[in-house]
Amino acid sequence: MVIATDSAPVNNPQAEGIIYVQGVPTTETRLTLAGTLSVSPMAIGTWAWGDATWNYKPEMFDDIAKTWDALQDESSGINFFDTAEIYGKGESENIIGRLLKKSKEEGKTVQPVIATKFLPWPWKLSYPGCLLSALKGSMDRLGVDIVDLYQIHGPIHIRSIEVVADALAEAVKQGLVRTVGVSNYSAEQTVRMHAALAKHGIQLASNQVEFSLIRRYPETSGLIAKCHELGVAVLAYSPLGQGRLSGKYSAENPPSAKRRFSNYPMKELTPLLAVMEKISKEHDKPMTAVALNYVMCKGTIPLGGARNPEQARQNAQALGWRLTEQEIEELEKVALVGDKGTFWQHG
After folding, report:
1. Handedness of CA 238, 236, 311, 94 (dihedral sign)
2. NADP-dependent oxidoreductase domain: which residues (predicted)?
3. Within a domain: residue 84?
4. Range of 143's domain?
């Protein structure tokens, strides 16, 4: 069933605005996170910008810069970029910092929304100090005075959710971040973080989880519905199954073993890919657009990767149309539910 949009939960004015798509997502569609950030219905995930996991080399920067320029065009409709301090050991943030400076020097009018993440290793115990120190490092690399969305990268911290929430609240109070979110949190953990931040008068903006046609767990577990109930936007990472749903790979040509999320043998995905290919031909859209459109239909904001302008254009083709309920049912008959993990993915 396609999730219809809803406005902010009753008696929760801090969550004002629409947090997921109503009807057809377009280049003009804007969603509102925590009543503060105006973002496109899909984002660009930048893990591959500077990270050896994706075989990044410095000479690739020119293609990334061209991708950035293409997305800075108002007609692209995408203004939202997600990174993290751990991506390329800070190099992803450095690259975005260079691109932001470039856009400013060129007088670009589009103001991108930048999200980054704090990695709460279990041995980080001194809150809020460790979080604020990491945040300032991210700000230096990004070259910004304030971060739009600052997220806890995973529920791997030993200190309680309430202690981490107090640290996030301190970042807001010091004017270092506009909004705060989490990633890989379960429904129960999201509820706790939401309540802990609410004591400071702060709305939890988002929970970023792996969600795609080969990991429907966040929907089937009730996590997406719970987030919506709380006014928390759901950001979907790996919406293309780390390339497995792009049409580029097959049982005979599998992706790199480094791509560990939803690491199913490509042979198991053959029935799903066949349905995706059929739908893509019917809509005259690339398979990537089918995968991304599905994720938007389920009430989440996909974070699709793009390392060159062509990939960015393919991602953008997920806008301007919507899968039918019948097509969604066809896809879900052969989609995979997946599961959660004990360490990293609780949601």
Report:
1. negative
2. 42-334
3. yes
4. 13-334
- Where do we find the tokens 């040509």? 253
Q: Report the alpha-carbon distance of residue 307 to residue 323 in Å, rounded.
A: 26
CATH code assigned at 211: 3.20.20.100
Q: Does 192 fall in a domain?
A: yes
163 by DSSP, 3-state: which? helix
Catalytic center residues: 87
Which stretches of 228-300 are assigned E, i.e. beta strand? 233-237
In sequence order, the 6+-apart residues with CB closer than 8 A to the CB of 275 are 330, 331, 333, 334
Give the pLDDT mean for 31-55: 91
The residues with which 207 forms a beta bridge, in sequence order, are 182, 234
- Token pair of 128 as six digits: 């809020």
Total structural domains in the chain? 1
Residues linked to residue 208 through DSSP beta bridges, in sequence order: 183, 235
Helix (H) or strand (E) holding 325: helix 325-334
237 in any annotated domain: yes
Please give the full DSSP string across 173-214, using - where no structure is assigned: HTTSEEEEEEES--HHHHHHHHHHHHTTT--EEEEEEE-BTT
User: 245, 273 in Cβ contact below 8 A?
Assistant: yes
94 in any annotated domain: yes
Q: Which amino acid is at 161?
A: I
Q: Coil, strand or helix: which one is 304?
A: strand
CA dihedral for 33, 37, 41, 44, sign (positive or negative): negative
